[in-house]
């Protein structure tokens, strides 16, 4: 890649091709915290479980948790413990959450959790120890 920055990487596993498209993150919001909240989380809909922000040298828009026990239920991601910026989707395990989107369906398991605040993409990897 000739220029530093953010890129959208799309891969087609059927044709074995990919594309890289530059992503302009200059106007991207910065958040103090990102958390996961919902009936599936330890505190239910009452409080977010905070994710850990990646180091700025890696990518300060990527957040994660190494291990989180989730119950059968639903979840969303939200910024700064407020509902003014939240992401949801109706797809379990992985997807792209959108503002005021549907609640994410969650099955009971231990998860590794990843979230990207630039595009709302998330990944919940079950059965982690």
Describe the structure.
By secondary structure, the protein is an all-beta fold. 0% of the residues lie in helices and 49% in strands. It contains no helices and 13 strands. Strands 3, 4, 7, 8, 10 and 11 form a 6-stranded antiparallel beta sheet that branches. A hairpin with a 4-residue loop joins strand 1 (6-12) and strand 2 (17-23). The model has no long low-confidence stretch (mean pLDDT 93).
Give a quick summary of the entry.
The chain contains no helices and 13 strands. The protein is mostly beta strands. Strands 3, 4, 7, 8, 10 and 11 form a six-stranded antiparallel β-sheet that branches. A five-stranded antiparallel β-sheet has the order 5-6-12-13-9, with no helix packed on it. A two-stranded antiparallel sheet has the order 1-2.
Give, in order, the helices and strands: EEEEEEEEEEEEE
Helix segment count? 0
Amount of beta strand = over 45%
N- and C-termini, Cα separation: 35 Å
Cα-based radius of gyration, to the nearest Å: 15 Å
Mean pLDDT across every amino acid position: 93
The total of beta strands comes to 13
Query: Helical proportion?
Result: under 10%
Extract low-pLDDT stretches. Answer: none
Largest sheet: 6 strands, antiparallel
């Amino acid at each position: 890649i000739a220029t530093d920055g953010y890129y959208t990487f799309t891969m087609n596993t059927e044709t074995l091709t990919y594309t890289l498209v530059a992503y302009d993150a200059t106007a991207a919001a910065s958040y103090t915290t990102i958390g996961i909240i919902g009936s599936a989380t330890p505190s239910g809909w009452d409080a977010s479980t905070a994710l850990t922000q990646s180091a700025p040298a890696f990518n300060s828009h990527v957040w994660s948790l190494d291990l989180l026990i989730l119950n059968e239920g639903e979840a969303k991601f939200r910024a700064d413990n407020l509902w003014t910026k939240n992401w949801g989707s109706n797809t379990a395990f992985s997807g792209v959450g959108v503002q005021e989107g549907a609640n994410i369906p969650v099955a009971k398991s231990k998860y590794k959790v990843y979230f990207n605040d630039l595009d709302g993409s998330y990944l919940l990897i079950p059965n982690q120890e």
